Structure formats: C-alpha cells, structure tokens
Amino acid sequence: MSENKKAVIYCFSGTGNTEKAAKEYKKIFEENSIETLLYNVGDNFDNMPNPENYDYVGLAYPIHGFNAPYPIFDLIKLFPKLDNKKIFIIKTSGEPLTINNISSEPLMARLKPKGYILTNEYHYIMPYNIIFRHTDEFAAKMWKTAKALCVIEANEVLQGKECFLKKFPFGRFIAFLFRIEHPAMKVNGNLFRVKKICTHCNLCVKKCPVNNIYNDENGNIKFKNKCVMCTSCAFRCPVDAINIGILNFWRVNGVYKFENPPTGIKGKHDNYCKKAYDRYFADADKKIHNYVRSAEEEYKQKSYYKNIENYIL
User: Fold this and answer.
1) Do both 33 and 150 map to the same domain?
2) Which long-range contacts (CB under 8 A, 24 or more apart) does 26-29 make?
3) Cβ–Cβ < 8 Å for 158, 34
4) Using CA atoms, how far apart are residues 9 and 54, in angstroms rounded to an integer?
5) pLDDT tens readout for residues 34-52
6) Which residues form the 4Fe-4S ferredoxin-type domain (predicted)?
7) 181 lies in a domain?
8) Alpha carbon distance 107, 155 (integer Å)
9) Which of 228, 261, 252 is nearest to 142 (CA)?
10) Positive or negative, the Cα torsion across 137, 139, 144, 148?
11) Span 126-150, mean pLDDT?
12) Residue 205 confidence class, pLDDT cut points 50, 70, 90
C-alpha cells in the first residue's frame, strides 16, 4: 500500500461505543501507513472534510431504530457527487439481530445516486446505553471481541476484500417506518428534566454530540429540540440526575468498566436474545481463529495484533 494514501472516518457516537471501534480502525489504518482522519459528526458541518480527497471513506454510527442517527443523514446530504467512490460502514448496537443490518440500506439509497459504492459493512456488538444495563463482565467480552474483529476487518477494507451483512426482508421499508424515531426523539428531548440532585458539573453539556444541552441565565441545565436520543447525558451523569422523558423507564446510568471488570455478577437479562448473542460470539470466535491460522507473519508483528492475542488468552 502506498504511504501517501489517506482515509477519513465520519463518526457519530453518543456514549462512545462507536467511537471506540472507529479509533481502532484509525490505529490499524495508520500502522499500515494510511494517514487517517477521524471526523466527529455533530450538528455543525462547517469543517467537514471532502470525501473526494480520501482513498478510503468510512461511516461509523450506532444503530437507532434500525437506522443511522439523523446527524449521519444530514452529513451525507452534503457529500458531493463522485464517480464510483468506495465507502465502508461501521455500526454498533446492543444486540446481534439480523434486522439491525438494514440500517445501511437507506443511507446507500441516498449515496448510490451520487456515485458511492458500498464495499464493506460491519456490525459490532457493544453494551446498551438504553433499555437495560449489561454486566461489566459481558460488556468487556463484547469489547474484547470487537477489538479483535476490528483488526481483521479493518485490514479487509485496506486489502479490498469486500464484506456485506446478511440482508433482511423488506429492509428499506422497515427502516422507513422506524425513521419516525428521528422527529419523535426531538420531541421527547423537550421532555428531559434534571433533578435537584444535579451538581452542575456540566458534563452533559460538554458531551452532548449535537449541542442540545445548555445553561440558562441562572445556570440551570436546559434542553433544546434537536435531541438524537443517544442518552449520553443520562448515561454519563455522575449522580444520575437526568430524566429522559417518556423513555425514562429505559434509562441506563454509569459508564461500563471494560478493563478488569468484576466477575460472577448475574445479570438481570441473561436470557435476552441469548441465541443471537451465542451465535454472534461463536461466529466471531471462528473468524478470529481462522485469521490466526492464516495471517501472514508481517501482520503478526503489528502492534494492533495484540488485540488478537488478548482475545485468545
């Protein structure tokens, strides 16, 4: 690979799960001599890099209601028309259901007429930040698996080895129906409230990816009308002071401990999508061990190969 090639990954991430995966791609690309820009997608695109200037172009996002979050849709509206521009997609979600694969379809329906071609798409399972909380032990297993897969799949992108996820019947139609979430979550965002226990640390203000949270003239936390329902504010709040409107019964608070998690703690939802999780981890394990057997020695010397070694240990 030529040393002067460049990559850009347009990444939207609320609580950081997708960003973690995108950063792994960046690290792997750069160790393969690909200059890589990780562009954080928010509510302002003034400094958006032009995909025309990059050899590798990626989109990274968490799946929201079988779709990409609305800032990703806003982003691709600004993409210029190009001839046969290859693009790869990294997406994350809390459950390994085939129906989640459809999130790429409405994006490519908009990008294909502009001349973009999807060559690779990958779905990494990361812990929930809404609905319920996984155990730290299970979250750590998800991340260890995702990191190992990132090694293999980032190299697939660089090597031109195409990969597509299994299609789901009537995918685009289902995604269209569930895209009601985009305006609905903006409405629900107006219902967010802050409890009196708030310490005014302003972490929620600083971490909101779409700048939806601000301090009023009295220093109180207030919310605008462009919530994307990433739940970064409620998830990160150190005193669990944020009520997330009509979905408050799904609120999850507190960051996960991915490294050296406590073990042996029984989760409340151990049977939730159990077959799907078992299948995901079994398929990942097979792919990782096949890679170990077939990987060329030069790749085993790369620092990122430690992700594979840590998985196997």
Assistant:
1) yes
2) 27/304, 28/150, 28/151, 28/154, 28/155, 28/302, 28/304, 29/56, 29/154, 29/158
3) yes
4) 10
5) 999 999 999 999 899 999 9
6) 189-218, 219-247
7) no
8) 23
9) 261
10) positive
11) 97
12) very high
Distances (CA, A) of 174 to 57, 99, 101, 169: 27, 9, 11, 9
- Which residue range is the domain that position 101 belongs to? 6-175+273-311
What confidence score (pLDDT) does residue 297 get? 87
d(CA 226, CA 43): 9
- Please, which residues bridge with residue 124 across strands? 92
Sign of the CA dihedral 76, 206, 24, 7?
Answer: positive
Residue 158 sits in the same domain as residue 302: yes
Q: β-strand 85-93 against 213-215: which pairing, if any?
A: unpaired
Residues 242, 116: one domain?
Answer: no
Q: What confidence tier does 130 reach under pLDDT thresholds 50, 70, 90?
A: very high
What is the chain's Cα-based Rg? Answer: 20
Count of structural domains, the chain: 2
Q: At what angle do helices 171-178 and 104-111 cross, to 10 degrees?
A: 100
Q: Are 29 and 226 in contact (CB under 8 A)?
A: no
Q: How far is CA 57 from CA 60, 85, 116, in A?
A: 10, 8, 10
- Per DSSP bridges, beta strands 56-62 and 6-11 are parallel
Q: Which residue blocks in 78-231 are alpha helix, DSSP H?
A: 104-111, 136-159, 171-178, 181-189, 203-207
Q: What's the pLDDT band for 298 if we cut at 50, 70, 90?
A: confident
Same domain, 18 and 166: yes
Would the pLDDT of 55 be above 90? Answer: yes
Q: How many CA atoms lie within 13 A of 254 on its CB side?
A: 10
Task: Report, in this order, helix, strand and coil percent for the chain, each rounded to 5.
Answer: 45, 15, 40
72-112 pLDDT, tens digit each: 999 999 999 999 999 999 999 999 999 999 999 999 999 99
Q: Across residues 240-256, what is the average pLDDT?
A: 96
